[in-house]
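> @MW can you paste both from yesterday?
MW: sure, first one:
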Amino acid sequence: MTLVILALVSFVQVFALGFQSRNVNHGNYGWAAGTSFFIGISQAAVWRRITGPDAGATEALVYALAGSIAIVSAMAVHQRFIRKAAA
């Protein structure tokens, strides 16, 4: 897995976790259930790479940076598209 793919998978993982959290907090059952699939797939891919024999500080840094970007993105997307639709 290249660092770019790791960053993308990490982004999906943290985005889905943040998006699911917002949906749970706002009672959006369908959206919360749907994000579980993406969380499971991305967690398996990320942890396989992060804990692999060749993993190191670079992989951890890529994971952390992608996660920071993803959580803010999830909050913004949910607020703009989901929360307004439910209101």
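MW: second:
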Amino acid sequence: MGQWTFLTNHAHVLIYVSRDPGARVREIADAVGITERTAHGILTDLVDDGYLRRIKEGRRNRYECVENLPLRHPVESDHRIGELLRALGGLTPSS
């Protein structure tokens, strides 16, 4: 099989965080197969663009997905982030 995937690293990080909102950057990076620096940058992108909320809990961060925002590409912009996350097991139907 080839080395490409259907989803971007941004999508992989978002899915991982939706499954484990309290995950550390190192855990996210290891799971996605990227560096911690890249994972941190992606988390910052997702927070800055409103797809995640960062909640400080002591010295750690916890993330909350914002489900009602549209997917960014025009081809799928009529769908919401919550739909993608539920389809890929990131959120439960009651989320």
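> thanks! The mean pLDDT is 92.
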